[in-house]
Amino acid sequence: MTRPEPALSVVVPMFDEVSVLPLLARRLRAVLDGLGEAYEVVAVDDGSTDGTGAGLAALRAGWPQLRVLRLRRNSGHQAALVAGVLRARGRYVVSIDADLQDPPETIVEMLRLARADDLDIVYGVRADRRTDSAFKRWTAAGYYRLMRRLVGKQVPAQAGDFRLLSRAAVEALRELPERSPVLRLVVPWLGFPSGEVSYQRDERAAGRTKYPLSRMAGLAAESVTSFSAAPLRFATWLGLAGVAVCGVLVVVAVLAWLAGSTVSGWPSLYVAVLFLGAVQLLCLGLLGEYVARIYTAVQGRPAYFVAADSADSADSPDGPDGPDSPAAGVDAAAGPAGAGELADSLR
């Protein structure tokens, strides 16, 4: 029997977040139960190795609205987010990280604004970045400035992956051919009516960040190459600049030869060879990024594989704890947090 469509789905991608699960469950359930509407929480376990899966199974025992979507391997934050959003069944879908830096209490305001103004998208926008280091503030400002130049001013500044989508927006995402879209760029590109809710971001509640500098740099590169051909045009202009500089050097060399003041000339030759080599390598690297994306698209490999969805087993005749359930046969006390502690977090 198919369950009725909930009014709200909350998608929470997580990787090795067992230490924050009790706090997350306590705060998120208090907010959602207070809505007085049918809801589901889609927890996407992105191949965790620290007992997050067992912790989620323990939480499900006392939280029937919790739905666990387990990926076969770690596919990355964006892939886990897309998997949860596309499988969510609610009329509105909210995505939020598990670290509680984005306050769950803001979901109520986002839902209220979407209904009052008939909006399909509501972005959670940070009021300030006082909790970030100076370096992170500078790099984040540069990232959003670049994205707004490439995609357009519809990309909200200081808005990450904390957002609300209507069912119409989710279905539009489902129709896109991209296998691993960067949602913070694709969602504004859809052009649906949108609004913003500002909030104060908190410190991470527990655990450590899953987005170090290397991953942030990777996200920036993925954002640029997946949504714009500007780097290719940059390579073209850089090549033209290299040709112009070499032309000037040729004129200088000919004038020096006519004046009879030529010497061995190795410095100018050395500079010219280095400059041309650098330009060629840079252009080849930029072309390689796009060729790699074409190669990946031609392969047609999915960005993620779903190992189990507790909603499927809940709809089966065996019920939510039947033999096909991902919770069946799992030691709920496994991992750093046992079942008793996690169950207590719901009371």
TrEMBL record:
Pfam families to which the protein is assigned, alphabetical: Glycos_transf_2 (PF00535)
Main location class: membrane
This protein's UniProt keywords: Glycosyltransferase, Membrane, Transferase, Transmembrane, Transmembrane helix
GO molecular function: dolichyl-phosphate beta-D-mannosyltransferase activity
EC number: 2.4.1.83
CDD domains hit by this protein: DPM1_like_bac (cd04187)
Family to which the UniProt record says this protein belongs: Belongs to the glycosyltransferase 2 family.
Protein name: Dolichol-phosphate mannosyltransferase
